[in-house]
Amino acid sequence: MNMFRLAASAALALAATAVSAQQTVKIGFITSYSGLNGNLGPYMERAVRLYLKQHEKDLGGVKVELLTRDDTGPNPDKARQLAQELVVRDKVNLLAGVIFTPNAMAMAPIATEAKVPFVIMNAGTAVITTRSPYMVRTSFTLWQSSYPLGQWASKKYKTAYSLVSDFGPGHDSEEGFSKAFEEGGGKMLGKVRVPLQNPDWAAYMQRVKDAKPDVLMVFIPAGKTATAVMKNFSDLGLGQAGIKLIGPGDVTTDEELPNMGDVALGVLTVHHYSAGATRPQNKAFVAAWKKEYGQNETPNFVAVGAYDGAAIIVDAIKALKGNMDPDKTMEFFKTWKNPNSPRGPISIDPETRDIVQNEYLREVKRVGGQLANVELETVATALKDPWKEFQKKK
Amino acid sequence: MSGYSADTRIRWTEWLPWVAAGLFFFLMPEYLSLGARILIFILFALSLDLILGYAGIVTLGHSAFFGLGAYTAGILSARLGVNDAFLQLAAAAGMSALLGMLTGAVILRTRALTLLMLTLAITAILLEIANKWSTMTGGADGLSGVQVSPLLGLFKFDLFGRTAFLYCLIVLFAAWWVVRRIIYSPYGAMLTGIRDNAARMHAIGAPVYWRLVMIYTVSATMAGVAGALLTQVNQFVGLNVLGLEPSGDILVMLILGGVGRLYGAFVGPVVYIVVQDTLAKQYPEYWYFGIGVLLIFVVLFARGGILGIFDKLRDKWLSHSRPKSSARASAR
Known about the structure:
CATH architecture of the largest domain in chain A: 3-Layer(aba) Sandwich
Distance between the termini of chain B: 12 Å
Largest sheet of chain B: none
Number of helices of chain B: 15
Radius of gyration of chain A: 22 Å
Helix content of chain A: 40-55%
Helix content of chain B: over 70%
Shape of chain B: globular
Largest sheet of chain A: 9 strands, mixed
Order of helices and strands of chain A: HEHEHEHEEHEHEHEHEHEHHHEEEEH
Number of strands of chain B: 0
Number of domains of chain A: 2
CATH topology of the largest domain in chain A: Rossmann fold
Strand content of chain B: under 5%
Shape of chain A: globular
Radius of gyration of chain B: 20 Å
Number of helices of chain A: 13
Distance between the termini of chain A: 67 Å
CATH class of the largest domain in chain A: Alpha Beta
Structural class of chain B: mainly alpha
Oligomer: heterodimer
């Protein structure tokens, strides 16, 4: 009898290891490969693939399958449909990715209803993570960069004008910046919101020029739009008119700097990541990126959000041994910390499931013949999303 | 195919779409949300067929009504807390009918290119309103937080789309029945008359303008209902329900299936959406190319759309087996 039990339990144990050896964790990965800022999607995917390649061996035989889908830019309808299909047809364990806020918002009910943990690797409107208890964010919020930016700017300048894209993150950036700027004694001369797609920059820039503020704060969703802003800023001579350009880091996004040229020199921004940062973790990350994708390629903030997003997923798989029970996965996500991210120490705030990180003041300078965002000082340490903190106090 | 003189009894082939839909429900449970989407676009295409195919009103602005219906249902739920599915449908139908009547009364006094530009302008204006009035519509972020309470208090809208599929199917069936009644009525005959020769219809004393406004309103109502269905199934409304793109898409779907033949509106969306779904998975960036090639072939070689091909084949076969009828076939 005893022998039989022993044999049975041994067989069971064998069967269990056999199952775990073949375990596959499926990740439904939705990002933008086409449409507005379609160039950002590949940064996200490359970062995830790079991290997976580096840490495949730590997974204890659990396979990770990445199912990639194109949401065609800010297209919430499409994103929602893709998420639903990934959950229902492909039975993914996790959802991940998403460049644009509207898309993340539209996917929230799917994550909640299907109980699928959803790792947001870019979309930065503060309110997103409140929309589903199954969301966690490894990127940033616009308040995290815009609020310290406003605090810093209010000490140096008296008047400001804000120009933002007319959608969630733009509204956040405008509110965060002007709140801090006015609290610090500055005066907002005007706030203008421009259409998300194909705005006529010249008209807006002219309006700013006529108002003669000390600084112009710009938020646009990075990518090629950032270069368009830079070109129009210089073409209309706002710099010569004595107006200083500042913003969250989207406006000097690392991968577009070579396309912007010298007009970007001296632009000051506050952001959580620069490819030019000198901490060793970042140097290793950039080196690995260049080795994998070519010497002329540079990672950007989208890449680092996705890289850390892959890290949180890999760590969860390790901790749960590939058994991705949604609630246990979320519990793990909530207490996750990474002191060695390329952007410095980061963690997840257990209450809000949002990222906690440092914010740096950077200036575009020429480093070794190429433009780079050089970190000047740390303006905020271990900063939680300010918007959520203000909401609590209300 | 249509008109007053045709036999109005429902032929056995006309039951085929409904049988297919029933089989789809049982055989492909994982594709039901895609199926619901197809049904919605069939309804939308059907509404366009009424004005384009039967009344000859060329429009690039049909998404105005689709979008208005979608936003009406969405705003009712997300802003005013009205979550009853049928109330949302009724409100969407009402709003779209109103817009259809008002704009129709103005723009249907014009013809051809002027008319085309006016329809385009109307949907562009609505798009801009939806974009700017973000307190109501959510702007470019879209309108989230739309909820639909369980149908009749029993059937919840589930993640697999079972309820959504059947619900859309029932609405589509009702719409199909109405459309069929219209096109086989004397009124329907009058519409095809206006399409083929408006001057002659005037000459025999038909109130051309009012007939057109009427059908435009009916069509707008149906498009609004389709929009509301999309909102309810997605529980979300985005800006992409308005503007040139959805208007163009639905036109392409209808042309693909066959214009002015009722069931073209059934075939077009099925082919278009299935092809799109398959291609988009393999070539996320180039799927439009495939659709383009398909459309070129249909326009060049099958003037009557995909259904037109079947007609040609049938005529060929009939003339082959019964030489006598060949004279009639070629006289067409």
